[in-house]
């Protein structure tokens, strides 16, 4: 039942984008998100789409795979679109019962939907091209300067790594417990929403119990191997900025320049 | 009345390059009142097979017929099948969730929508069957019990459904010798006293040899051998070839014979072995 989740998935191949430093990729993703909110006309979106297309082509990830990532949030996109269509006041072009469709609403709705779609596609490019381990390494390294004001950068990154590592384990466990309770006549599929929510108790309690047990075991095993946080810890794979990263950075800065220019002068 | 599989085949990840046949053309029939063992190496398809016995998995090809009801038949009520065939998974203690032992054992009967009195009777019956004092245990939290006790509560949770067939997947895994003995002797008693048909899946040849009267050997999804323990264990080379063993006592008897003591090697439990060795030795000294 959980096998179709593509959001946050990694697509492990070799490509220009895959080989970029994770920190650079995280920063580029941030700039991309910010640029989406700077854009205020459809013409500038052309540059956003162009920028994203360049990244997708260079990453060698199948376009279909990127589009499939939109599936889980399709409903949100549709709802946002509809709310914007009906709730914006302006020049009425069509009346649907008590609801008015306005020209401004239609424009606004298209704008928002496009923004959401590009947002998801852009951020999923980060996870598609970066393995979870590298991603957390990158986050840790980026958060390092904030250690001075007491931010536990290493611990946060370690927590993320562990959380990601245990997703498949917990899914397997869920399936197992589900089967065991089904063997005792449990029914997870029928009934109204309250009945269904209640039927999850026999699933969630054992799941939590085992998650805590696993956490305990893991903590013990880490301590047994002398783990004591990030201090003086070295890495097997050192992060390093290469020429590729610099090109990517320059490319992104030019892109951001165009977007800002479009906002001010168009 | 029986559990019967007809050309049962089950594939994992069908249609992809990872496709594997977990079960390949299995034909067996487990009759009521029997005590059968299913043995096989890890990944031989044991767990997949037993999940077909109560409809948790559906056959890709072939059919499973439980007390005359086919799993292929859309009219077959799965709830009824799951009541008829009780399945105790590996490490069943991980399915406990209620605040008290009573409530946990009552979960199954409650799902069957029985009335309060009947549920009460069944919980008593089930806890008694696994050797607990009902009054003492009913209000305790299942999470405060020891590993072996937890497992017995979990088994009681399945027994409270009053199944006609009880399938146990590695019921002694991870238990210490005393917990192991406790569980096994209770299963033995269950079979004798309440005439439940028991299907035992195990790695332990000793456990199997001690309890069951018919064995199915699975290897790579296929039924490799079947027969009484005597028949199966007499073929020890073949068992070892597919990564299984024989009870230690079989090896000992073979070694004795090899060393010159003329014992019968068709023996697979300790009591018989002792008698046989004594018979041979006494026979020798009398000469």
| Envelope shape of chain A | flat
Count of all domains of chain A: 2
**Largest sheet entry of chain A:** 2 strands, antiparallel
General form of chain B: globular
State the secondary-structure class of chain B.
alpha/beta
Oligomer: heterodimer
The helix tally of chain A amounts to: 10
The average pLDDT of chain B is 89
Domains of chain B, number? 2
Overview of this protein structure:
The complex is a heterodimer of chains A (266) and B (287). Chain A has 266 residues and is mostly helical. Chain A has two domains: 1-130 and 238-266, no CATH class; 153-235, no CATH class. Chain A has ten helices and two strands, in the order ααααββαααααα. In chain A, strands 1-2 form a two-stranded antiparallel sheet. In chain A, strand 1 and strand 2 form a beta hairpin. In chain A, helix 1 packs across helix 6, helix 1 (22-38) runs parallel beside helix 10 and helix 2 packs antiparallel against helix 10 (243-265). With 287 residues, chain B is of the alpha/beta class. Chain B folds into two domains: 2-239, Rossmann fold, CATH 3.40.50.300; 247-287, no CATH class. Chain B is 42% helix and 22% strand. Chain B contains twelve helices and ten strands. In chain B, strands 6-7-8-3-9-10 form a six-stranded mixed sheet, sandwiched between helices. In chain B, strands 2-1-4-5 form a four-stranded antiparallel sheet, covered by helices on one side. In chain B, strand 7, helix 7 (177-194) and strand 8 (197-201) form a beta-alpha-beta unit. The mean pLDDT of chain B is 89. The A-B interface holds A 176-177, 179-187, 201-202, 205-206, 209-210 and B 51, 54, 56, 79, 82-83, 86-89, 92, 94-98, 107-108, 111-112, 143, 157-158, 161.
């Amino acid at each position: 039942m959980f096998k179709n989740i593509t959001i946050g998935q990694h697509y492990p191949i070799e490509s220009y984008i895959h080989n970029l430093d994770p920190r650079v990729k995280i920063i580029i993703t941030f700039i991309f998100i910010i640029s989406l909110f700077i854009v205020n006309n459809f013409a500038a979106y052309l540059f956003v789409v162009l920028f994203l297309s360049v990244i997708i082509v260079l990453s060698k990830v199948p376009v279909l795979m990127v589009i499939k990532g939109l599936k889980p949030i399709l409903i949100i996109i549709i709802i946002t679109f509809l709310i914007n269509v009906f709730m914006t006041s302006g020049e009425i072009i069509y009346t649907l019962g008590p609801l008015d469709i306005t020209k401004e609403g239609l424009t606004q709705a298209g704008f928002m939907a496009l923004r959401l779609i590009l947002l998801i596609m852009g951020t999923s490019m980060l996870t598609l091209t970066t393995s979870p381990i590298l991603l957390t390494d990158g986050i840790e390294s980026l958060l390092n300067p904030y250690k001075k004001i007491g931010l536990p950068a290493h611990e946060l990154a370690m927590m993320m790594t562990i959380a990601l590592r245990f997703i498949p384990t917990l899914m397997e466990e869920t399936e197992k417990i589900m089967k065991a309770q089904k063997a005792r006549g449990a029914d997870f599929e029928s009934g109204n929403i309250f009945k269904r929510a209640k039927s999850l108790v026999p699933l969630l309690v054992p799941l939590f119990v085992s998650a805590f047990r696993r956490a305990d075991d893991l903590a013990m095993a880490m301590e047994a191997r002398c783990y004591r946080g990030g201090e003086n810890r070295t890495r097997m794979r050192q992060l390093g900025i290469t020429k590729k990263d610099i090109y990517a950075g320059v490319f992104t800065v030019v892109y951001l320049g165009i977007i800002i220019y479009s906002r001010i002068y168009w | 009345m029986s559990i019967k599989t007809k050309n049962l085949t089950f594939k994992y990840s069908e249609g992809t390059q990872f496709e594997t046949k977990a079960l390949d053309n299995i034909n067996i029939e487990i009759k009521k009142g029997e005590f059968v063992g299913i043995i096989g190496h890890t990944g031989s398809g044991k767990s997949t097979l037993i999940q077909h016995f109560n409809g948790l998995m559906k056959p890709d090809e072939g059919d499973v017929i439980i007390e005359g009801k086919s799993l292929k038949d859309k009219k077959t009520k799965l709830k009824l099948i799951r009541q008829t065939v009780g399945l105790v998974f590996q490490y069943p203690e991980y399915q406990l969730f209620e605040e008290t032992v009573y409530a946990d054992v009552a979960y199954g009967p409650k799902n069957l929508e029985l009335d309060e009195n009947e549920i009460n009777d069944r919980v008593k019956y089930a806890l008694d069957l696994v050797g607990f004092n009902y009054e003492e245990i009913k209000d305790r939290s299942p999470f405060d019990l020891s590993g072996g006790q937890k497992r017995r509560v979990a088994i009681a949770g399945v027994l409270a459904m009053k199944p006609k067939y009880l399938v146990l997947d590695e019921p002694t895994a991870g238990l210490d010798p005393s917990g192991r003995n406790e569980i096994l002797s209770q299963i033995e008693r269950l079979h004798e006293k309440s005439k439940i048909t028991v299907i035992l899946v195990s790695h332990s040849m000793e456990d199997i040899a001690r309890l069951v009267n018919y064995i199915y050997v699975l290897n790579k999804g296929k039924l490799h051998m079947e027969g009484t323990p005597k028949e199966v264990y007499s073929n020890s080379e073949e068992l070892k070839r597919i990564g299984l063993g024989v009870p230690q006592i079989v090896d000992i008897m073979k070694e004795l014979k090899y060393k010159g003591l003329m014992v019968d090697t068709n023996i697979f439990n300790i009591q018989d072995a002792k008698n046989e060795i004594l018979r041979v030795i006494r026979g020798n000294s009398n000469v």
